[in-house]
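Troubleshooting log. The previous structure file for this entry was overwritten by mistake, so regenerating from the original sequence record. Sequence copied from the archived sheet and checked twice against the printout by T.R.
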Amino acid sequence: MKKILFTTVLFLSASSLCFAGNYEYPTLYKSTRTMGMGGANVAVGGHVDAFYTNPAGLCRMESGDWEFNLLNMGVSLGANVQQFTEDLQDAFDIVDEDEQMTAVNETLGEYFGENMHFGFTDTFDIGRGGENASFALSSIANLSSDILPHQGFGAEGLMEVNTSLIYGVGLGLGYKVQENVFLGASLKLLNQESVKHNFSVAELVENQESMDTYITDDLQQTASAVASDIGLIYEFDSGMDSLRPSLGISIMNIGGLEDLPMTVNLGAAIQVDLGMLMGGDSDTLETDMETLEKSNMSDDETSEDDYKPSLSLGFDYVDILGNFDQDQDVAKRLRFGGELVVFDSILSTLALRAGIYQGYPTYGLGFRLLLFDVSYVKYTEEIGAYAGQVEDERQMINFTLGW
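Regenerated output below.
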């Protein structure tokens, strides 16, 4: 590894840089559901993940329904991480030492200026919707790592490393003030361990014998904070029982970690009961009831309402005060998308999602069978100073055990 490091330094010193930094907005948690909808969830809610976007959205959970995510793990990868890993492994597999170092250098050279992203999230969530009051209890461990190779000289150094582990617990409460007015608040206890540093050539050479100790003792930073969130959702009277338009506002991360600045976010949403809209006299489609009969389950065992399809559309503008100091770009703060729940029963659920996030399309789906849920999303994170400058395509998959 020493030889690889030295030859890499020499190779990088003669290279050119096309991009000088990562301007990604920090986020405590990205759910596959929300990201599949283009990141829009301020006025949508209806699930425990509203805890991370607007606690007032907890009030939109079905009254009397519990949501348990006993095991909720997600992994996200940048588009070039897998190929980079494979190319680097091919180089390491070369037997001849000189040829191996040459291959490693060539591989690294192909990825200059390209961000390498890896993320892992594990949460434990319990939530319940009530007639007037709803709550969510959540614990989280979120690891996010980004590495950006540079040319080796200048202020940006050899490579920019931004790795952060945030973990903690939180409690969110939602309360129905009036029939169409929902308030929410949450409290979170958070801890962070991070390494955010531009490594220079000289720095790597000087600390080559004890790099792990150098990172732990000199570069790793720790922080802890108590953060709070408040939110509001107002539902308009559309004159139609099948249509629920709403507006939402949330103030997130009040007094929290320095790396997670307070943001004020606005959202609008429309939620459509497709079963009622399509004229089902009992909110149930005939095809759904046929599926119910084939599973040999009686009407007493499964509610007909469990089978009604629905459509949710959301539009968000986050950080209206411009507290994200990476830039002041408007397009990076826009999110729009929707979720089509094809069916939702005791046995299974299928949801299709799509949206626009920071000017780029997102696609996702979620499928649950009994207690096992898997969801997937493909989206693009803007790591440049404005939307459309430097895109970092990512994929995220999430596995959940719960109900």
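Residues 1-19, 281-304 have pLDDT under 50 and may be disordered. Archived copy saved in two places this time.
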